[in-house]
Amino acid sequence: MFLSNKKQSEVKVNGRGIAKRWAVLTLAGVLWIGPVAGTGALIPLNGWMSAPIASAASGSTVKLGEEIITSGATLLKYRFKGSKGTALADIIRVDLQNPYVKLDVMTGKNGQFTTRQSTGGMAKETGAVAGVNGDYFNTSSEGAPIGGQVSKGVLMSTPSDLTGMYAFAVTKDGSPMVEQFTFEGTVKAGDGSSFSLAGMNKASYSPETSGGNYSHSNAMYIYTSAWKAIERPKNSSTTPTEILVQNGVVTQVSDNATLNMTVPQDGYILRTHGKAADYAKAHLTVGQTVETSYHLRVKSTGSEVDPSNLQMMIGGHTILVNDGQKTSFSRSTTSIGGTRARTALGYSRDKRYAYVIAVEKNGNSVGVSLSELQTLMKDIGVWKGMNLDGGGSTTMVTRDLGDTTAGLTFNTEYGTEQRSIVNGVGVYTNAPKGTLKGFTIKGNKTLLIGQTGSYSFKGYDNYYNPFDTSKVQVTWKSSNPAVVSVSGGVVKGAKPGTATLTASSGSASATTKVTVLGADEISSLTAGTGTGSLTAGAKIAVPVTAKTKDGQSVSITSDALKWEFIGFKGSVKDNQLTVNTVDAGVKTGYAIGRYDGFSAVVFLSAGGASTNNWENFENVSYSVDFTSNVEGVTGTAAVVQGDGDHANSKVLELNYDMTNGSGKMYAYAQLNGTSGKTLEQAATSISIDVRGDKSLNWLRAELEDAQGKTAYIDLAKVIDWNGWKTINADMSGLNISYPAKLKRLYVVNVAEGQDERAKTGNVAFDNISFNTPGTVGTEGLKKGTAQMTIGQKSMTVNGTPTTIDAAPMTRDGSTYVPIKYVLDAFGGQAKWNAGDQRITIMRGGVLMDLTVGKKEVVLNGKRQSTDVAPVVLGGRTLVPLRLVSEQLGMTVKWEQETKTITLQS
Fold first, then answer.
1. Beta bridge partners of 223
2. Are 334 and 307 in contact (CB under 8 A)?
3. SS3 string of 426-443?
4. Which is higher by pLDDT, 475 or 134?
5. Where is mean pLDDT largest: 341-350, 456-465, 715-724?
6. How far apart are CA 385 and CA 388, in angstroms?
7. Sheet with 568-573, side-by-side order of all strands
8. Is the per-residue pLDDT at 6 higher than 60?
């Protein structure tokens, strides 16, 4: 999308970044969708094929599957291996010879410029079954495309006078073009005189090929009702004379001023300056008749193109593919370089197919460079193609079979948020209502044990458009009721495994596979806030959230977990934990809920749950300074009086200006010089109130641990909000030693896609809290020193020797000890589950599950990988000492000569 426009003489065309999600659809039976290019084979549509269907000659592009959107439009998915890794590409292939489908340009809101709208919003407003983002535009200007545009056969914008800018067009007889176009137009007054038109509905810019310094100087532009804004263009450095023409007659003339009105539907406004204004004042007086004529011209051939003969046209950037091969860029790509999300258009050699291309950039896809995009386009069969706006603008929406509207095909760079843009390419169907052809099932592809799934049954006709099934009676059936049960239309996960869910009505049916996840697929399990009061009669909300390894967050009822209570007697029902009685002398209780063996824990303290407000900035005794990695970046960092929700408290405010910087730029709020503020206890998460500035920059915190190692916390990958909100960030995987120091809170503006993000802004911080489980329930925990020696069945605790029944040992460089004696010495307890070969360790606010032979630990409900695993030796389970003891709040020292281990708490 971007053209930055610091000055009228500095217009730069830029690109952008992205991320995504893919929906999988499985249908009963086989749906043949026609030959694959170059193979002659027929491909069944059973959702996305699980195995590659075709591999391109280069070996870097592999087709994963395809799915029909509507008659004549098919969504294809490819995997591309580039220099930075694997990228996913989503391509809408449109059959330009199919009478029931067409391409057109979607524009802003209500089909007007200066009214930016998301791709999905434009598709919904215009009824498109699919679409992508479109042309570049000046982000600091009103919101009009840089290139030419024809929509519904009407010229709405003319090409800018810039070098190497291509456009994609389709004639009304369905023939595609990728060419550079110029505009030629004339205004003829009733007295027979004429003056040339410079363009239509254009924002101001700096022309390149004609050598002009300012687009609207000494020029005449025509503005139609497609331009909604009152000003034409805004913040112009020239003073216009404007002429309103209605029904071919001049009705108003402003002298060196704007008309201060929107353009009426029955007319247009001529915006003139300098020589053009002189002509207008002499020849375009009120009552004078006016005629306009204009056309486009193809640069390469010189042939004239009547816009009324075009079905659509949209501007873009450089050409990418010509004659089926990668070609030299027609325009500098420096400002749109890097590995990014990309959008492009092209057509096949026989001109039958148009390709609408979007390459994802997210957790599953690294994006591509422009050179790699060329390779991808060549591989999929593009004969001639060009680049569209990319990066953060790259967005694709498609309508799934049976649905009535198009939804996001994959997540954008900012998740599900879609950027507002000036135009896009839409895919439209004009097929008549057809007869029922088939059904689809929409709903959960994965369930947890005890989770209820939501499923819908939708129909489509022989043109692959939605078919009303509201009066159709549907019967549901599971192929494996032991895994997925169906009762009264309610589908529920019963145990780990996979089952086929079938929906049928008469002779029609559809199926989808549903997988019930087991403990191995869970990365974390949380129950409520994880803390509560250990008091008889206490009631604690414990809604359970599971996070899967693939990033899904799933809410499940607490009743689906098997609960165990240590230190008290209680019960769990309807997402509520009730403390019935407390065991005598117990200060810390544990409610452990297990999902297929995976644990969630609620810590209950006799003193109740406490809040660790580590820093609220009310009484700061240390310095706060602004620093940066780049000399040109300036700003301030200071403790000031808050605003909004924090008006009654002091906050740390960080102001930054990166305008004069370059590359990857940081703006730091540095605490206590270079020393930072100390965090004594091990922390599993941080909570912090942040006032965002919607700069789209990256927000981070930096810590230094006791060993001098630096650790970074991503508070927000994108600052996409204004005002105050609370951020919670996980720290359990940092693997740092304590005490640690919080040294910096800061904003990052990375070099790639920098034009998408604000270079100036201000953020603020308040109420920093750390979750330090080791401080919960510390009553009963012991302090002191213990020593053990490798191979010896003895242990000294605070100077007193005692016998132990299993000696510490070393294996593969790690030390193992019988954990029972460590807990006896310092407080805590352990439980052994022989069936699962699992040892559960509890001390204070820490609960750990370790399994014999498994190099992982579940720490307070979060799965973590480890380098070592527990072992069984001589009937006694030994655990990795350093892994366990440091998580339990102890320090470990090793004496190499004597093979002595010293533990302190």
1. 269
2. no
3. EEEECCCCCCEEEEEEEE
4. 134
5. 341-350
6. 10
7. 539-541, 576-582, 568-573
8. no
Tokens of 263: 């353009």
SS (H, E, C) 384-452: EEEEECCHHHCCEEECCCCCCCCEECCCECCECCCCCECEEEEEEECCCCCCEEEEEEEECCEEECCCE
Closest C-alpha among 640, 689, 654 to residue 761: 654
How is the chain split among helix, strand and coil, in percent rounded to 5? Answer: 5, 50, 45
Positive or negative: CA dihedral 870, 872, 877, 882: negative
CB-based contacts of 654, cutoff 8 Å, min separation 6: 626, 635, 636, 637, 667, 669, 745, 746, 747, 762, 763, 764, 765
Secondary structure of residue 376 in the 3-state scheme = helix
Can you give the pLDDT at residue 883? 79
Strand order in the sheet with 304-305: 194-197, 181-189, 290-298, 304-305
Q: Are 881 and 891 in contact (CB under 8 A)?
A: no
Tokens of 542: 């414990």
Residues 6+ apart with CB under 8 A from 676: 703, 704, 741, 742, 743, 744
Greater pLDDT, 754 or 361: 361
Helices and strands (H and E) in the chain: how many:
5, 81
Asked whether 221 and 200 are in contact (CB, 8 A), the reply is yes
Instruction: Please state whether the peptide bond connecting residue 739 to the residue before it is cis, i.e. omega within 30 degrees of 0.
Output: yes
Amino acid symbol at 687: S
List beta partners, residue 526: 545
Burial label, 619 (beta-carbon count in 10 A; 0-12, 13-18, 19+)? exposed
CB 719 within 8 A of CB 694: yes
Structure confidence by residue, pLDDT tens digits, 496-511:
999 999 988 877 788 9
Name the amino acid, one letter, at 489: G
pLDDT tens-digit profile of 661-711? 988 999 999 999 989 999 987 787 888 999 999 998 999 999 999 999 999
For residues 510 and 28, the answer to whether their CB atoms sit within 8 Å is yes
| 400/441 Cα distance (integer angstroms) | 11
Please answer whether residues 76 and 69 qualify as being in contact, where contact means their C-beta atoms are separated by less than 8 angstroms: no
What stretch of H or E contains 825? helix 819-826
Contacts of residue 520, defined as CB under 8 A and 6 or more positions apart, other chains included, come to: none
Q: How far apart are CA 656 and CA 636, in angstroms?
A: 7
Residue with tokens 């004594």: 680
- Specify the pairing of strand 73-82 against strand 85-95: antiparallel
CA distances, 311 to each of 102, 153, 424 (Å): 9, 5, 15
Q: How many CB atoms lie within 10 A of CB 24?
A: 12
H runs (alpha helix) in 569-635: none
Rounded to an integer, what distance in angstroms lies between the CA atom of residue 87 and that of residue 61? 10
Token readout for 872 is 């069984």
Question: Whose CA is closest to 312, among 176, 461, 481, 131?
Answer: 176
Q: How many CA atoms lie within 13 A of 29 on its CB side?
A: 13
In 3-state terms, what secondary structure has residue 335? Answer: helix
pLDDT digits (tens, 9 = 90+) for 52-104: 334 444 458 999 999 999 999 999 999 999 999 999 999 999 999 999 999 99
565-571 LR contacts (CB < 8 Å, sep 24+): 565/589, 565/590, 565/591, 565/592, 566/590, 566/591, 566/592, 566/829, 566/842, 567/534, 567/604, 568/534, 568/604
Amino acid at site 660 = N
Q: What sign for the dihedral angle of Cα 397, 400, 404, 407? A: negative
Report the 10 Å Cβ neighbour count for 293. Answer: 11
Q: 517 - beta bridge partners?
A: 448
Q: In the structure encoding, which two tokens stand for residue 320, read together?
A: 């990418």
CA–CA gap between residue 683 and residue 739 (Å, rounded):
10
Structure tokens at 598: 């995976």
In three-state form (DSSP H/G/I as H, E/B as E, the rest C), the secondary structure along 554-583 is: EEECHHHCEEEEECEEEEEECCEEEEEEEC
